[in-house]
Amino acid sequence: MARKPRIAFFDFAGCEGDQLQIANLEERLLDILGHVEVVSFREVATGHSDDYDVAFVEGSITRPEDEIRLKEIRKNAKILVALGACAAIGGINCLKNFLAENVYREEVYGSSARWFPTYAARPLKSVVKVDAEVPGCPIDPTEFARITKELLLGRTPWIADFPVCVECKQAGNVCRYEMGRMCLGIITRAGCKAACVSQGAHCWGCRGLVPGANLDAARIVMDRPGTSRKAIQDLLRFFLGDTGAAL
Amino acid sequence: MAKTAAQAPAKKAGKTAAKAPAKPKKAASPATPVSTPPAGSVPGPKKVRVHYLTRVEGHGNITVDVEADGTVSTCRWEVPEAPRFFEAMLVGRDYADVHHIVSRICGICAIGHQLASLQATEDALNINVSEQTHLLRRLALHGENLQSHLLHIAYLVLPDLMGVDSILPLAQTHRDVVLKFIAARRVSNEFSRLICGRTTHPQRMVPGGFTMFPTTEELQSVRTMLKETLPNLDFAVDFFATLLDRFPKFERETEYVGLVSPSEYAMYWGEIGSSKDERRPVRQYRNISREYIIPTSTAKWTKNMGESYMVGALARFNLNAEHLMPGAKAAAKKLGLKKGCTNPYMITVAQLVECVHTVEESIQQVEELLARGIREEAPAKPTSLCAGRGAGAVEVPRGILFHFYEYDDNGRIFQADCVIPTNQNHGNIQKDLDALVPQLSGLSEKELELRLSMLVRAYDPCISCSTHCIDARGLDTGARSLVRINRKK
Predict the structure, then answer these.
(1) ipTM of the complex as predicted
(2) Is the CB of residue A136 less than 8 Å from the CB of residue A85?
(3) What sign for the dihedral angle of Cα B169, B171, B172, B175?
(4) Cβ-defined contact of B107 to A109 (cutoff 8 Å)
(5) Which of A55, B28, B44, B334 is paired with A49 by a 20 to 30 Å CA distance?
(6) Residue A227 structural domain
């Protein structure tokens, strides 16, 4: 029998909520585990090996030393998958990129700020080639299972290439713009079934820009009477700080 | 003390034997030495590096210095997690976004961060929320604590007690126990999902209330699920009662800090209580979580009356045990856990007792909500925005969590401070390691690794949370290991 694909999980700066979503698959996780061998999953298991086929990497790169480790992972893995918003698009960590480095360091660490070498937060793809991504903050466990299955079958996994608005209409939500609120569903990649809008919030853009997002048009839509430029900027920086969308 | 050290090898031998058939492909030791001169053959200082403490959230290591004769001279607890600068990222942000940002501090206790954040924001901006909102938020906190505790007990600690690497081999050898834990955990996730809409980074909770509400049917199903979970937890309690002799014997007096309330087992609100100090209102949190840095340490530590203090399930139990629900009291009795316990390895046992308490109290609160009837109410708004300061404190799985914000006249953050439980425990972990040192001499590296990592793991450290954490060693050592053993000639 052919060797089972060996998979490994790694994390950089992030909340590890995406690995938790995978643990939360419970029984479905056991199904997946029947087809693979997990060689490294630090959050739930002791034991580690550098011999793996697929690496799932969570979190952003925020320090020069992270690059070395990520390149090592890239070298070992046949397929490298960015897991979640921090890894795929930089996500919330990029909020700090809009602050002067000495400011954010001193804000948190005061006079000891010089102890911590960090640089602007960035997604994995700024450092190495990424073969696939599981978008979202947090990831959708079902989408993770599907993407993993497609990877194991040797296919290039498909992720939605249309905006959240499509799924939001299917979910029967009232458009946030109709309610005089802002929403990033118009430029954000779908696949979440408009999870946040359906819960009464608006889209924050956690799944990254949809291919071909028309940012100029989006800014015109967002820039309406009663909306401050600051509010637009805040929303565009929330998750999209590393993209061209952020003002 | 010496006796315990002598017992450990015998116990360990049995565990290793049990491990072999379960996971033949894995290295026998969780350690992956990367620069180890062959043991015994090369004279001179010995250095073993082990990548990251496993089965904890975040990155941490323990460095152990061993003399040539096997005497352990020092153990150091270090945290090389990448700092994320959340407090700085909050500056200038609108009050409506703040809890969504801090939620991302931690994927495990996202709800706890949101709740502490909402409390601080509402305190600062004078937003008064309804009784229903408080009840729903209490349930949200219960759901998350249950989920996190079960993850820690079954997935992270149980493998140590059974002498295996992870829960996976146990699914074969102890299927009934594992399935009961998995079932309980699924219930906790479903419970969270029905109350908050999503288990991680939920969207329903906002300053002033909720944007969506569970339906009566959903609450009824929560009640049914929770009632069905109680027998599973009883089973888990009975099972753990048989494992008590596998918890290392180790006692160290320390200060216990947590929320206290005259009327309940305080989780959602209360005053700051201490086993050695007077009670304080939450706004005075800085007086109790005094942070300091010492040259040889890697993380900011906190202290109050003594050299260090402990937060978390055992601290809460030691402060508030008399307020536990009846079933939880019975569980504590079965597990031999008594108020005043000073063995940090027993944190896991206290968590199990809290699981029972959480489920019992949640059932009560769901009943109350059902009796009142769920009303769809719009979130309360601040009457007028004006600059203000506010503090929030909730008991999250790993202990007391403080958020403190100062807002400007536009409802935007001027300054923020988050004090995370794991950071408050760092100093206590180090002091425990210091006290443990005399018990460690003569142990093999594998035994050292297990004894030390079990201690740290007992605290359930959530290092990704520790926004304050400092890796004072910086880049120079490339220190990225858990138990690093330096053996001197």
Answers:
(1) 0.91
(2) yes
(3) positive
(4) no
(5) B44
(6) 164-240
CATH of the domain at A140: 3.40.50.700
Judge whether B80 and B485 are in contact, CB under 8 Å. Answer: no
Q: Tell me the per-residue pLDDT of A112-150, one tens digit each, with 9 for 90 and over.
A: 555 556 788 999 999 999 999 999 999 999 999 999 999
Q: Which of A122, A152, A182 is the last residue of a domain?
A: A152
Residue A159 forms part of a structural domain: no
Q: Are A221 and A192 in contact (CB under 8 A)?
A: no
Please work out, in degrees rounded to the nearest 5, the angle formed at the alpha carbon of residue A215 by the alpha carbons of A211 and A221.
Answer: 125
Where do we find the tokens 């180090």? B430
Q: How many CB pairs under 8 A join A and B?
A: 175
Q: Does A92 touch chain B (CB under 8 A)?
A: yes
The answer to whether A96 contacts chain B (CB < 8 Å) is yes
Query: A28 and A132 share a domain?
Result: yes
| Structure confidence by residue, pLDDT tens digits, A184-210 | 999 999 999 999 999 999 999 999 999
CA distance B266 to A216: 51
- CB–CB contact B107 A30 (8 Å): no
* Helical H segments across B151-215, by residue range: 158-162, 167-173, 175-196
Pairwise CA distance, residues B376 & B373, whole Å: 10
Measuring CA to CA, which residue among B365, B380, B391 is closest to residue B209?
B380
Mean pLDDT of chain A: 88
Closest chain B residue by Cα to residue A95:
B89
Closest of B173, B72, B14 to residue B449, by C-alpha: B72
Which residues in chain B have Cβ-Cβ distances shorter than 8 Å to A199?
A: 197-198, 202-204, 211-212
Q: How many Å apart are CA B393 and CA B379, to the nearest integer?
A: 21
Nearest residue in B to A116, CA atom: B474
